Amino acid sequence: xxxxxxxxxxxxxxxxxxxxxxxxxxxxxxxxxxxxxxxxxxxxxxxxxxxxxxxxxxxxxxxxxxxxxxxxxxxxxxxxxxxxxxxxxxxxxxxxxxxxxxxxxxxxxxxxxxxxxxxxxxxxxxxxxxxxxxxxxxxxxxxxxxxxxxxxxxxxxxxxxxxxxxxxxxxxxxxxxxxxxxxxxxxxxxxxxxxxxxxxxxxxxx
Amino acid sequence: xxxxxxxxxxxxxxxxxxxxxxxxxxxxxxxxxxxxxxxxxxxxxxxxxxxxxxxxxxxxxxxxxxxxxxxxxxxxxxxxxxxxxxxxxxxxxxxxxxxxxxxxxxxxxxxxxxxxxxxxxxxxxxxxxxxxxxxxxxxxxxxxxxxxxxxxxxxxxxxxxxxxxxxxxxxxxxxxxxxxxxxxxxxxxxxxxxxxxxxxxxxxxxxxxxxxxxxxxxxxxxxxxxxxxxxxxxxxxxxxxxxxxxxxxxxxxxxxxxx
Lengths: 206, 259
Fold this sequence. Notes:
The structure holds 2 protein chains of 2 kinds.
Chain A (H helix, E strand, L loop, with lengths): L1 E4 L7 H9 L5 E3 L2 H4 L4 E4 L5 H11 L1 H11 L3 E4 L1 H4 L4 E2 L4 E2 L6 E5 L10 E6 L1 E2 L14 E6 L1 E5 L5 E7 L1 E9 L2 E4 L7 H13 L7
Parallel strand pairs in A: 1-2, 1-3, 3-4, 4-14, 5-7
Antiparallel strand pairs in A: 5-6, 7-11, 8-10, 9-12, 12-13, 13-14
Chain B lengths: L4 E9 L2 E2 L14 H10 L5 E5 L7 H14 L4 E4 L5 H9 L4 E4 L1 H5 L2 H10 L4 E9 L10 E5 L4 E6 H11 L3 E6 L11 H10 L4 E4 L5 H9 L5 E4 L1 H4 L5 H10 L9
Parallel strand pairs in B: 1-3, 1-11, 3-4, 4-5, 5-6, 6-9, 9-10, 10-11
Antiparallel strand pairs in B: 1-2, 6-7, 7-8
């Protein structure tokens, strides 16, 4: 069972539809008991870190996610889901889930640079990973965010993107992988990432 | 580097597009779902739908269009026209749109922007601005005035002030339409676009006046726009999105070339 975690942080319609395009039915849930049955977890989300963390705790989903990581099942974080897996977020000065060491930081403002970083941008992949296989040179992915994940360990950064600074846009460790961009809104290359994720056994980067 | 977005705009009335595509014979030229699919495959970075359905009791037809479009394309799209309250926003977003665009309703009730941003996130809330050039005055010091009802009703509100106020209220993006340039195919309103784009931290989509690739080049450089809305120049087959993007790429504008 592929579980999509719903913690009232944005619209999950496009994630569900993307899975459907791959012939897969995702189960959207707020229930930790359902997450415990999952064979794969997608952890999406947009919005503010503070409210998101409060809702996750209230629903008991923080513990459910931690147990999913410990069980070794493949987990995919998307956007806010790539940020609050870290220990702390500058947004609302919030403690995160701490699934990975590191912090979520604000994109630095600069003259002529628009924040939020909204639109299509490239990802320069630094390490081979099965979730990011088969993507052509020059492919772009859809972003919309003002903060970015900064894992403590350099080996956890799988890909980087340039918007004023070069920031981690794909991160991962063991059975967890996360993208700051939205694969579910990134055309056929985004769909390729989701398809790769569905085939991934959760083993770490090669 | 962030790519500049090229965004086809489709006007939809009672579930049908009011301008069809003429360059492919095998497509039902009035079907917005078929057109969305075509533009998605042709390299559009995003799509905008404006519901110009006159009567509100036919709104559910548009929701059905949104649902069917969402099943066909894997890029973001926004829906505007007739969005009056949180329920209208929710209907459109849950049907699968990425963003909603508010225009007249936001001018008449600015709290709608904040309510929408709090309920769904700023990134969902696009402020649509219809702007007309006027003589600078006490009420419109920038020389640009907000208008509604397709340009027929001047509001006595300064466009520059309103753009900044909307950011403060929680808008995540601005779609800036020049009533003077709209439909002329003679180029975007560069002065207006640059003024607004430099005054706000959020992305600005330029709209109105696109007739040739050089117009997009102008508005993305001189106009400082983050994205350009196009309609007739692609609807009638004079240009393709690929052709426009190649033209821009040759002139060192970052655009998405692989899709």
